[in-house]
Design goal:
Distance between the termini: 39 Å
Radius of gyration: 22 Å
Keywords: Ligase, Phosphopantetheine, Phosphoprotein
InterPro entries: Adenylate-forming_Reductase, AMP-bd_C_sf, AMP-dep_Lig_C, AMP-dep_synth/lig_dom, ANL_N_sf, PA_CoA_ligase
Number of domains: 2
Structural class: alpha/beta
GO molecular function, one term: ligase activity
CATH class of the largest domain: Alpha Beta
Helix content: 25-40%
Protein name: Phenylacetate--CoA ligase
CATH topology of the largest domain: Rossmann fold
């Protein structure tokens, strides 16, 4: 997808002073005259930014404005190494709120809604982003944060929350609790805004049906504002990305070459207005595609498809490469299998052993047939045969944040 003239104008405006303002980009683009970037081809020759680059700039090496202009910082979790710290100016915070309010509007949420916010607050960008957008929209924000399910359900009833925001894992946990406690008729939810992890269609339908809500996928990452840079519309076919703030590319993960619209590759983002920590050609490691053509909803903002996974999500077993999205596809088309699963990979006596645990309501011979069917579909779709084991509903763990589903103990 080529830049629009409006996007290119914003990029070139940034480039006029970027190296003077940012030591990070002075080093990154050493020997490159950004004034020479005049065409799409010129732009695509610029080097990518990687998460490791951002980690090496810890703590505030990404900052591109004076200290007195920074009003807030956010940070990635840092679970896989040094965290990434992103500084924000007041304009950055305002721009994030504008984008997030748009997300709510795209989902049909108005200032008459009551939005229960269950993602976490603090250094993480989640909870405060959902709140910023709600306040910008003029809706009632109920800033619960994660956990304390009893309190969540009590407030949901007493305050008559109409919108739930959550990770898919916690939305499922809440849906199951509402079912167990027979609260469906006592809640007023109508919309769900769900983000932060990929999830399959079966899980989506369970949450939608058990909560009685229409679900919208929201997209974002700490390095680029946070959640709220894109969302699905009423067509539920991909997520619109706010193209007046973000330019999207999809590249071949191995070669870095830009791919045509419609082909799956790694999503690369460039911020068009960010002041505190602009990002140029940032590799997200998220695998998706740009959906070609216009959306039936009428929005001109481009769409990316539901995420396939991440480049670092892939596991290789018995010579087969597999992504979570492929496993979820197997679960989806296996009759009798519910949405929750775990994949266990072990090496026993030099041999890789692959086990797929999945929840099912079936018992006895019906469960055995379901296990056999799942193994056959897995072999046909992915290329290797797992040991499929059905377990009772609710036996696999739920999470208030993100649920870990693939456990590889070989290394």
């Amino acid at each position: 997808m080529n830049m629009t003239p409006e996007q290119f104008t914003l990029v070139k405006e940034q480039f006029k002073t970027l190296k003077e303002r940012s030591d990070f980009y002075a080093r990154k683009f050493e020997g490159i005259d950004l004034g020479d970037v005049q065409t799409q081809e010129d732009f695509e020759k610029l080097p990518f930014s990687e998460k490791d680059d951002l980690r090496s700039a810890y703590p505030l090496g990404l900052q591109a404005v004076p200290d007195e202009e920074i009003v807030r910082i956010h940070s990635s979790s840092g679970t896989t190494g040094t965290p990434v710290i992103i500084p924000y100016t007041q304009q950055d915070v305002t721009d994030w709120a504008i984008q997030f309010a748009r997300c709510y509007e795209m989902a049909g949420i108005t200032n008459k809604d009551r939005i229960q916010i269950t993602p976490g607050y603090g250094l993480w960008t989640a909870g405060i982003g959902f709140q910023l957008g709600a306040e910008r929209l003029g809706a009632m924000a109920i800033p619960m944060g994660p956990g304390n399910t009893d309190k969540q359900l009590q407030m949901m009833q007493d305050l008559k929350s109409t919108v739930i925001t959550a990770t898919s894992s916690y939305a499922l946990l809440l849906a199951e609790e509402i079912g167990k406690r027979n609260l469906r008729d006592k809640i007023c939810l109508r919309k769900g805004v769900i983000g932060s992890e990929r999830w399959g269609d079966k899980m989506r339908h369970r949450i939608a049906n058990e909560l009685g809500v229409e679900i919208y996928d929201i997209y974002g990452l700490t390095e680029v504002y946070g959640p709220g840079i894109g969302i699905s519309c009423d067509e539920h076919h991909g997520m619109h990305i706010w193209s007046d703030y973000i330019y999207i590319e999809v590249v071949d993960p191995d070669t870095g070459c830009t791919l045509p619209d419609g082909e799956v590759g790694e999503l690369v983002l460039t911020t068009l207005r960010k002041q505190g920590a602009p990002l140029i050609r940032y590799r997200t490691h998220d695998l998706t595609r740009i959906i070609p053509g216009d959306c039936a909803c009428g929005s001109a903002h481009p769409r990316i498809d539901t995420l396939v996974g991440r480049t670092d999500d892939m596991v290789k077993v018995k010579g087969c490469n597999m992504f979570p999205a492929q496993i979820e596809e197997v679960i989806k088309i296996t009759d009798g299998a519910s949405s929750e699963y775990q994949v266990m990979i072990e090496n026993i006596s030099g041999k890789d052993i692959l086990t797929v645990l999945f929840e099912t309501e079936l018992e006895g011979e019906a469960k055995e047939r379901c296990e056999e069917e799942l193994s056959m579909i897995f072999k046909a779709k992915i290329g290797c045969t797992p040991d499929a084991k059905g377990v009772p509903m609710g036996e696999l763990p739920r999470s208030e944040k993100k649920t870990k589903r693939i456990f590889d103990s070989r290394y």
